[in-house]
Amino acid sequence: MAIEAWFMDGSDGDQRLPHHRSPPEFVSLDHLADVGVLYWKLNPTDYENDEELRKIREARGYNYMDLLDLCPEKVDNYEQKLKNFYTEHIHGDEEIRYCLEGSGYFDVRDKEDRWIRIWIKPGDLIVLPAGIYHRFTLDTSNYIKLMRLFVGEPVWTAFNRPQEDHPARKQYARILTEKVGVALAAH
User: Fold this and answer.
1) End-to-end Cα, the chain, rounded Å
2) DSSP character for 8?
3) Is 20 a known ligand-binding residue?
4) Which one of 52, 54, 163, 167 has the largest count of C-beta atoms within 10 Å of its C-beta?
């Protein structure tokens, strides 16, 4: 089954709830690809030996990997960290996340500045392009185990909105305007 994504409602309720519009408006993989979000469905139970993951990492240059458990029992200042992750921001590099266990939401802005909520579950690997406005939160399960991938040394710097003059944001906006395609197809 492909990843689930939808346009969010405008409510300010608990960030861990789905926030579907009424009626729900689902977003296709093609729409996600149009804003630069890539997606693969992999086997999270054998990630150490997954040939498809190896090929993706090799093709895209992801040579650094670590694992992160996010839940109240394993993260100091859990509520504050979750609040920080949920602040709208960009990065100067891609954000690559592979869900191994649990679930959570990545929210991204589309070309019309609407929030799209992407629900990641075990096996979902997503790549958010550098410069895209986004945020992250757990869902009501309050648990996710993520693999984080990077090109080179990990960079954790988030630049909170507004960042229209940041080089990564300018490049992202240019690509959206020119409708440049993504080189590596995802599925």
Assistant:
1) 11
2) B
3) no
4) 163
Check the annotation: does 166 bind a ligand: no
pTM over 0.90? The answer is yes
Residue 187 annotated as lining a ligand binding site: no
The residues near 174 (Cβ < 8 Å, ≥ 6 apart) are: none
> In whole angstroms, what is the distance from residue 117 CA to residue 123 CA?
17
Binning pLDDT at 50, 70 and 90, where does residue 179 land? low
91 annotated to a ligand binding site: yes
Return the percent helix, strand and coil in the chain, to nearest 5.
20, 30, 45
Read off the amino acid at residue 125: L
Query: Going from the N-terminus, what domains does the chain have, and what CATH number goes with each?
Result: 4-178 (2.60.120.10)
Please report which confidence band the pLDDT of residue 178 belongs to, taking 50, 70 and 90 as the band edges.
Answer: confident
Q: What is the mean pLDDT of the chain?
A: 93
